[in-house]
Amino acid sequence: MSVLLAAPKKMIELTVDGEVVRVFEGSTILDACRMLGNEQPTLCYGDTLTPVNVCRVCVVEVEGARTLVPSCSRKVEAGMVVLTDSERVRTSRRLVMELLGSSVDLSTAPDALAYIEQYDAKPDRFGPDAATVVQDVKVDNDLYVRDYSKCILCYKCVSACGEDHQNTFAIAVAGRGFDAHISTELDVTLPESACVYCGNCIAVCPTGALMSVPEYEKRQAGTWDAENETVVSTVCPYCGVGCNLELHVQDNEIVNVTSPHDHDVTEGNLCIKGRFGYQYVQNRR
Amino acid sequence: MFGAGGGTSSYEELRETADLIILWGSNARDAHPIFFHHLLKAVHRGAKLYVVDPRRTASAQWADLWLGLDVGTDIPLANAIAREVITAGLVNEEFVARATTCYDAYRESVEPWTLDEAERVTGVPADAIRELAHAWGNSRYPQMCWTLGITEHHNAVDNVLALINLSLLVGGVGRHGTGLQPLRGQNNVQGGGDMGAIPNKLPGFQDVEDDALRAKFDAAWGVTIPPKYGLHMTDMFEAIEEGTFSALYVIGENPAQSEADQTRARKLLSSLDCLVVQDIFRTKTAEMADVVLPASASWAETEGTVTSSERRVQRVRKALEPPGDARDDVAIVYELAQRLGVDLGSPRPEDVWNEVRTLSPMHAGMSYKRLEELGGIQWPCWDETHPGDQFLHGRLWDNVVKNPAPFTPVKHSPPVDVLDAEFPLRLTTGRRLESFNTGVQTGGFSSPLHVGGEALLVSPEDGARYGLRDGGRALVTSRRGAVEAPVAFDNNLRPGLAFMSLHFPDLVEVNVLTIDATDPKSGTAEFKATAIRVEAIA
Amino acid sequence: MPDLRLLNAEPSDAERIAIDAVLGAGNGANNRTARDDRTKRHLLLPALRAAQQRVGWVSEGALGYASRRLAVPPAEAYGVASFYALIALEEQPADVTHVCTDLSCMLKGATVPEGAHPSPCLGLCERAPASYRTIAGEQPVEEQIPAVGPPLPQAGQSGLRLLRRIAAGVDPESIDAYIQTGGFESLRHARELGPEAVLREVTESRLLGRGGAAFPTGVKWEAVAKQQALPHYIVCNADESEPGTFKDRVLMEQDPFALIESMAIAALATGSSHGFIYVRAEYPLAHRRLQNAIDLARSRGFLEGFDIELRIGAGAYVCGEETALFQSIEGFRGEPRNKPPFPVEVGLFGKPTAVNNVETLFNVLEVVTDGGEAFSGIGTKDSTGTRLFCLSGAVARPGLYELPFGATLRELLDLAGAERPKAVLLGGAAGAFVGPDLLDIRLTYEDTREAGVTLGSGVVIVYDESADLVGALLRIAEFFRDESCGQCVPCRVGTVRQEEALKRLAAGRAHEDELQTLAELAQVMQDASICGLGQTAANAVASAIVNLKVFAA
Ligand SMILES: Cc1cc2nc3c(=O)[nH]c(=O)nc-3n(C[C@H](O)[C@H](O)[C@H](O)COP(=O)(O)O)c2cc1C
Ligand code: SF4
Ligand code: SF4
Ligand code: SF4
Ligand code: FES
Ligand code: FES
Question: Hey, of A29, A56, A93, A167, which one would you mutate to test binding to chain C, going by the most C CBs within 10 A of its CB?
Fold first, then answer.
């Protein structure tokens, strides 16, 4: 039997905040930080997605580099000296959160809210007239809503819908600059678009801009009860692929379905049946 | 396949290693969407994809080459590929000599299938067949995947054998990275087979007619298992017709709607003395039942295990309280036993599973704890130190092969329901992405994709020829019955071919049209090849 | 083709014919076999441009047809189309005029008439105020207005190197005229020398890139030459959109064969078999003359083993950033990539690529003819050769000047006739303002770097006493806000906040810590943006605040 063996990976040594760490060649600075238990803030980084390094909240200082570098995508090099908490880094992270917080509704974005707190960001410093992306919620189907007032343009939904996972390419970034936004072709509604309602975009959205209809409606009605939610993992009842499901249950009712990112059958992805096809068990109630 | 029935390789091998993937009669993009994610990663990595399907399906649109054969001509195509692989000297001679038998007979059997002859019979251009044959013959890690397009025919088993033959020819099985993957249509068809819910096997694919094996079960259960094979669903229907079969206990199936030639199926079901239906819904079959046992949804309201297409056993868990009087399947069966006078104690799914582990060696190592920790385990898993096998039949690559794999010559047998002047169109059936089987479950959510799902799809050319209108309605007639359906034109169909899905029986009862010609070996019906005619309805 | 759901609308016959003219015939799928072909995406922008030129906008039908022909998902095609200012996604009249409202034209009193579109710098600053007109149709018209500018200020002078032929008035459309004035001698010589020797000469010349980043050309070429991955590409960056810059246009319009020749040398040295010239859309005369030059050079056998393709932009400054330029050619949105990896390793189509500015490539001819050592003797130690300067604004003789490195700003301004400047913008919108106190600065890389300013793309815009500097700052802020690709937060939102703050300052409604906020924005945009656009978007504003004390109370 012949099995091709990949060349063994080299180890690379670098310093992060004074601590020496060894990681495999090809790792990112973020990987190295995590080895040390030194977690970095990230918004556009996704554990199952190709880094797009656009949010810039994860930037760190690398000795000798002219600018700060994104830790989520920058590959380690031997002898690198990295600072994750210098004044320069903190200033950048704080201002990035202020820029986001002043232009986007972050009320359902737990990570972003935590970073605002952590870096003592003051999004209101730009005054009440600062331009925002506020707009109407797009409710155009019974499965999920899109509230782009909450969109930080992290590109994760686009990557998930595109080549990283779903390969449906129903959404892309359109427009340019501050007008750049997530869009279907010609901004048509989802039912007119190529969307197949796999919900793999919802699964990676860090801000709640994409939200299932049950969650959206419960939040609107004030009956959303995240505190008392239980999560049970099981297997999808439909085809034979064997996708793992996590059923999010509030008050004996399924409110969301996700799949674990670290399960190698799905990498967190599902199809419309797995993600939204649970309603029938509830209809019997 | 050569013993235990299951896909021989894993998704991971397909994703990371395969260099050639054939999807034969499978529209995995829609029917097995997450499997298709793995496949697309392979395609993006540079693996070649060939799709054999009468329709240019969503899957076919990703293919390096799509081959649009006539419905029911899979064997001629496979045999022609084999002949070309042989003629071009691309056979893995060493493997064939060491690990297979009956090669000469096979070679002779494919001899008549020249490229030109195959083109004449299948409709696929000879060049395309040659290209596929050479890709297959030159691939280091080929993967052959199929679904109902291969198995919903009157000669289903022969179709599968034709594909297995192709794999043997190139040594495409039993090695890491290459294999055969029959994609399972339902979340636990594989598990049903594993557990012996087939007429000829006990749990763990242990043969019913093997005395020693049966004795093991007899001893464990304190019963005497009849020493002969049971009946397939199709055999059962025949037995009902012959009057030798009078009671039926149906668990989680809906034969009143899912069986081919429905008119006949319902007539037979209603002639039973006793019909017991255990289901989570009041299905059409349940409506005909003498007793209905309300069950809980196995994946969200009970504990247990299921087995996926890649033989991976995984845990299902209870997240919700079942409604009303519904109870889980284990509880129902135990209660029934009690009423019949056997006390099995108080049921716990884990106890049942541990009993399986003592009786089925290939499940022996799969404790609940390990299933949890490892995120599922692929069988066989012989003991609690065994990680489970990613691929099967590695023994075929041993220096001395004890049980060589046989080639099985197979003959072309065209669809039973022939096309003629009266019924000139070939209707084939299939799945749509957002729906499932008879739609009992998927009908429950409000999918924007359901719209128009029950339509009869025809090529624009046929639409014009038969005076249909895109968006209009048609009367669709087969030799068995007629239904009305909305019409949609589809550019991915060629003239002569029509398509309907099975998911919306309440809107359009497609199975009134289909033929119940079944495969004597597997009992599957020929859903894929019906002769029809269409007329516009004003 | 992947299982794309395509737009329903059909293209009109005119749109179909225009797109087919770019894409050729279909791929022969029939009802028995078909292939997925995802290799043609790089023709997306040419296809969209064809529809735009034919009917004046890209309709749903045209967008859908281009998507279908190229197997590009419609949502992505829409994302690409909506990225470019010159692709209209709503119906508009066939005849459209884009009026420059940018820095130099502002100084010449540009106004936008009813119905016309305002535009960033059109690269015609020496003839400001300028505009660009497009008339869609079967024979589409594209005009630069005014059609001709003032004569080359140094016309007739000897001693010019890069401008030699232009100053002598050599016919730019005649390959014979080019050959008679020494054309293709460098290429012949390079072929005699062989790739390694050419690389050595270029390295020895210490030629630095003229596109703005001043990277050593020899180092870049050697890095590409030694890459294992094949093919290698050579790309000429002729997107010239830095406000105030027009040098590359003059070179391409007036001496196009020289660019083709220098690219052939670059290809030889870097082992490239294919080259692209990416020219901004607003340079129709350059398109025509370059295509003519490519065709003639090819037919005369000067391009053996090497092919050059002309690619035309569609109105996006950021596409001048080298990796955004690759994205644009490949048929994606012009969003810069994070570096590393650098283009020499992972460039166009993911392959090793040498990307150079037009002026840089012109210098290569001199290097090969004279030898690297001789070339390095011109100019100063760290700035070798001559440099082109684009003079506009308050000067008597605006236009393109060539001077050896080392001349002072005052000498240059004297040549061009600038009376008592109040301020000079060096390097364009991404550059910096200097005040009268800095006029004796030597125009070299080292001197400008030391002074904290930049030569950038050679822009020199002169502001006299009457000029509105605050207006200029607002225009610069507006420019970056418009031209940001929108990918990264510091630039996408930072450019908006910068403009808002400047508007408040201009209107006398400033928050109390406004200047502090601007300084912090400048720091973070520079530190944390992905590309040079965001990194320099605050430079000019910051320099005006520091060097000119614009908002000093
Ligand atoms: C926003 C932006 C716009 C740019 N525009 C141009 C341009 O129009 N022409 C150009 O040659 N370089 C431009 N550059 C610089 C290129 O990225 C690159 O450095 C240059 O083409 C390299 O060529 P050189 O080494 O010959 O200068 C731009 C850079 C940025 C950040
Ligand atoms: S639901 Fe699926 S197909 Fe639709 S936009 Fe999200 S990722 Fe794309
Ligand atoms: S919708 Fe969500 S995932 Fe998509 S770009 Fe916006 S914030 Fe990111
Ligand atoms: S700095 Fe600006 S132009 Fe450059 S990548 Fe970021 S958003 Fe785009
Ligand atoms: S997480 Fe690194 S740039 Fe967004
Ligand atoms: S053309 Fe108007 S500023 Fe350059």
Answer: A56
User: CB contact, 8 Å: A191 with chain C?
Assistant: no
Q: Which residues line ligand 6 (CB under 6 A)?
A: C 100, 102-105, 121-125, 128, 130, 243-244
Structurally, at CATH architecture level, domain C95-145 sits in 3-Layer(aba) Sandwich (3.40)
CATH number for region B189-378: 3.40.50.740
Helix (H) or strand (E) segment spanning residue B117: helix B115-122
The structure tokens listed for C511 are: 């928050």
Q: At what angle do helices C60-70 and C74-81 cross, to 10 degrees?
A: 120
Chain A closest CA to B302's CA: distance in Å?
10
3-state helix, strand, coil in chain B (%, to 5): 35, 20, 45
Q: How far apart are CA A103 and CA C385, in angstroms?
A: 48
Q: How many CB pairs under 8 A join A and B?
A: 176
Q: pLDDT tens digits for A42-84?
A: 999 999 999 999 999 999 999 999 999 999 999 999 999 999 9
CA distance B59 to B245: 42
Which of C287, C333, C342 is CA-nearest to residue C309? Answer: C287
Intra-chain end-to-end CA distance of chain A, in Å: 55
Nearest-ligand number for the alpha carbon of C208? 1
In angstroms and rounded to an integer, the radius of gyration of the C-alpha atoms of chain A is 21
- What single letter denotes the amino acid at residue A247? L
Q: Does ligand 3 lie within 6 Å of residue A209's CB atom?
A: yes
CA C38 to centroid of ligand 5, rounded, Å:
29
Q: Which ligand is nearest to the CA of A106?
A: 3
Smallest CA–CA distance from B436 into chain A, residue: A238
Pick the CATH number of B425-537 from 1.10.630.10, 3.30.70.141, 2.40.40.20, 3.40.30.10: 2.40.40.20
Cα nearest neighbour of B189 on chain A: A240
Chain C residues with CB under 8 Å of A186 CB are 7, 60, 63, 74, 78, 89
Please tell me which chains touch B, using 3 or more CB pairs under 8 Å as the contact test: A, C
Pairing of strands C141-145, C307-312: unpaired
Residues in B touching C8 (Cβ below 8 Å): none
Q: Is B433 on the interface with C (CB under 8 A)?
A: no
Q: In what order do the strands lie in the sheet with C386-393?
A: C399-404, C386-393, C459-463, C423-426, C432-434
With H, G, I as helix, E, B as strand and everything else as coil, classify residue C297.
helix
ipTM tops 0.90: yes
Q: Please, are residues B53 and B149 in contact by the beta-carbon 8 Å criterion? A: yes
Binned average pLDDT, 10 residues per bin, chain B of 538 residues: 70 95 94 96 97 94 95 96 97 95 96 97 97 97 89 83 95 93 83 86 91 92 90 87 90 82 86 91 89 89 89 91 88 90 85 92 92 90 90 86 92 91 92 67 71 84 94 91 91 91 75 74 74 91
Residues in chain A: 285
Going by C-alpha positions, the residue among C131, C133, C135 that lies closest to residue C120 is C131
pTM equals 0.94
Residue nearest to atom 8 of ligand 2 (CA): A161
Q: How does pLDDT run across C158-181, given as a tens digit for each residue? A: 889 999 999 999 999 999 999 999
C-alpha distances out from residue B115 to B109, B133, C426, Å = 15, 10, 72
Task: Select C164-376's CATH number: 3.40.50.300, 3.40.630.30, 2.40.50.140, 3.40.50.11540.
Answer: 3.40.50.11540
Which has the closest alpha carbon to A72: A83, A90, A60?
Answer: A60
Task: Name residue, tokens 């209603």.
Answer: B270
What SS3 string covers B269-335?
Answer: HHCCCEEEEEECCCCHHHHCCCEEEEECCCCCCCCEEEECCCCEEEEECCCCCCCCCCECHHHHHHH
